[in-house]
């Protein structure tokens, strides 16, 4: 009786699919809960627009049915829904047909013709599933939830309403949440799960307050006061009743007023005041004549029967019992129950199939994710192994380069000693007058090395070939031949060789003495103008950077110490 059955219709109709028969002005009226103005506008369009095609006419009739439904004229709403079905028959537009099915389903719901309502709810559900149309899948599930509520199948209703809420959440339609929270809360209330019900009703209350939806607010207040009445919390019960009554009187809403008086009937009976209950019951009946709701009528009939029985007015009480039984029989007929049960079974089977498909999809996704994970782990393992191997190879390569450099240093020194032995440096210039050119070349190279090393000429960054020729008393040709035949490829190469040897000696001396090598100033001590040039030439000659060379030399010192310690222990 407190179902917010039709508000979702407004919200669902706001998604336009480009159909020419849609009228956005009507949709705007529905969004604003402006059903009287919507009704007037549609009737004007139907009466003054002869050029309307059959699809437009069917749409206007289904929308007019909804408008009459919302102002309480259920019979008129059903007649208009039937006309919209008839007019839409030639159309091949399934979306339009679904609009008329929706009008039929909810008109039959309001007139408690549940078997017919089920037929059109099922049509909507099929269309929604086949087309993937969220609106009509949701509308059909909502209708089946409402039918279940009328037949007091509250567990089924809760399942339908929960599915509706899931659809809304999945599709991120915020405007529908207030209705969906309310319906779930209402079903939980009927199942006497009060704490869970209040949780959803509070969520609905928050959303309805934001939307300023007073009609829904009144319904939520009514459900909350029912819950607090069951909890014997009279303070909150009275608080929410006053709020609901205030809105009902402000809106002059006959349905809300009838609901309010039926609640007061219940409390009067609880307080053992049957006379007051009968008074409230008659007020509720008067409003229900203007806005008939079968479920609410049944509740009032049952309460009137109980109140009249208490004061021994048995004949009158019997009349209300007969009225109640007749209405209940119509709503909860064996045929209706059978149809609903069949539809619930079909719905459950489809849900199970959908869950199985979802589980299968999840398994496929999980396998893919696992394969991707394994692939990533494999790639990372190969990459990490490659990095480790590369680092290891670099370490070995650096050791090889270090040993190779030491070998060349020894070879250079041995060559120099050999030349020194064969051709010792003479103090006079007559030694240069040697007839054998090879001997002369060896002598000149020996003298070149001795002069540069003894006077440390290589530490002068400005040292050039001309200066050296002048010092040695030779010429460019002889100097070039001596250097090329016995040493480097040119003058600059031999100078750089001696500078790098100087840098290596500084590194060796400092590390041997337990000092830290000042790499940043090493280039100045070696005769270079720039640190970058020093680094480049150092690596060219040794294959290692100064830092790497220092590290290798340090390792060499540690190994020698370890070897000496091991030998001494023997």
Write a structural description.
This protein has 570 residues and is mostly helical. It contains 25 helices and no strands. Among the domains are: 252-332, Alpha Horseshoe (Serine Threonine Protein Phosphatase 5, Tetratricopeptide repeat); 333-400; 423-447 and 465-487, no CATH class. 80% of the residues lie in helices and 0% in strands.
Task: Please outline the helices and strands.
Blueprint: H1 7-12, H2 24-31, H3 35-48, H4 54-70, H5 74-88, H6 94-110, H7 114-131, H8 134-150, H9 154-171, H10 177-190, H11 194-211, H12 214-230, H13 234-251, H14 254-270, H15 274-290, H16 294-310, H17 314-331, H18 334-422, H19 437-454, H20 465-472, H21 476-486, H22 491-512, H23 522-525, H24 531-542, H25 546-569
- Total helical segments: 25
Instruction: Report the sheet with the most strands, covering strand number, pairing sense and barrel closure.
Output: none
Oligomer: single chain
CATH homologous group name of the domain at 252-332:
Tetratricopeptide repeat domain
């Amino acid at each position: 009786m407190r179902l917010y059955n039709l508000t979702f219709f407004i919200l669902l109709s706001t998604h336009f699919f480009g159909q020419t028969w849609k009228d956005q002005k009507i949709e705007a009226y529905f969004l604003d809960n402006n059903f009287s103005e919507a009704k007037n506008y549609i009737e004007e369009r139907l009466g003054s627009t002869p050029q309307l095609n059959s699809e437009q006419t069917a749409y206007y009739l289904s929308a007019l049915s909804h408008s009459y439904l919302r102002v309480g004229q259920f019979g008129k709403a059903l007649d208009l829904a039937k006309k919209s079905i008839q007019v839409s028959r030639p159309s091949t537009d399934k979306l339009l047909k679904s609009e008329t099915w929706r009008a039929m389903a909810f008109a039959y719901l309001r007139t408690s013709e549940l078997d017919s309502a089920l037929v059109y709810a099922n049509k909507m559900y099929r269309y929604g599933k086949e087309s993937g149309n969220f609106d009509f899948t949701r509308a059909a599930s909502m209708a089946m939830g409402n039918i279940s509520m009328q037949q007091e199948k509250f567990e089924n209703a809760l399942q339908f309403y929960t599915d509706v809420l899931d659809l809304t959440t999945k599709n991120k339609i915020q405007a529908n949440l207030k209705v969906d929270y309310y319906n779930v809360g209402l079903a939980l209330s009927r199942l006497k799960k009060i704490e869970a019900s209040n949780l959803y009703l509070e969520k609905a209350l928050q959303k309805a307050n934001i939307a300023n939806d007073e009609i829904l607010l009144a319904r939520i207040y009514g459900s909350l006061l029912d819950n607090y009445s069951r909890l014997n919390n009279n303070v909150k019960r009275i608080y929410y009743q006053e709020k609901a009554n205030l809105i009902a009187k402000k809106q002059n809403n006959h349905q809300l007023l009838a609901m309010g008086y039926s609640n007061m009937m219940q409390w009067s009976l609880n307080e053992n005041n049957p006379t007051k209950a009968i008074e409230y019951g008659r007020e509720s009946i008067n409003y229900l004549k203007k806005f008939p709701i079968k479920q609410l009528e049944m509740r009032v009939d049952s309460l009137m029967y109980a109140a009249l029985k208490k004061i021994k007015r048995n004949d009158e009480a019997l009349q209300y019992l007969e009225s109640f039984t007749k209405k209940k029989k119509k709503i909860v007929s064996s045929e209706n129950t059978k149809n609903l049960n069949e539809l619930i079974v079909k719905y459950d089977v489809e849900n199970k199939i959908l869950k199985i498909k979802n589980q299968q999809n999840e398994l496929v996704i999980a396998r893919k994710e696992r394969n991707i994970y394994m692939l990533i782990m494999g790639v990372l393992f190969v990459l990490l192994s490659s990095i480790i191997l590369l680092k290891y190879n670099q370490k070995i390569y650096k050791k090889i380069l270090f040993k190779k450099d030491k070998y060349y240093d020894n070879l250079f020194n041995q060559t120099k000693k050999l030349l020194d032995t064969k051709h010792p440096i003479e103090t006079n210039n007559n030694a240069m007058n040697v007839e054998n050119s090879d001997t002369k070349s060896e002598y000149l190279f020996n003298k070149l090395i001795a002069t540069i090393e003894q006077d440390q000429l290589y530490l002068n960054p400005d040292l050039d070939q001309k200066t050296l020729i002048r010092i040695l008393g030779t010429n460019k040709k002889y100097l070039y031949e001596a250097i090329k035949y016995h040493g480097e490829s040119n003058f600059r190469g031999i100078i750089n060789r001696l500078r790098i040897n100087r840098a290596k000696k500084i590194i060796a001396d400092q590390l041997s003495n337990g000092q830290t090598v000042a790499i940043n100033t090493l280039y100045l001590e070696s005769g270079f103008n720039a640190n970058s040039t020093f680094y480049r030439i150092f690596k060219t000659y040794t294959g290692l950077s100064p830092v790497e060379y220092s590290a290798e030399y340090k390792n060499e010192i540690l190994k020698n110490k370890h070897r000496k310690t091991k030998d001494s222990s023997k």
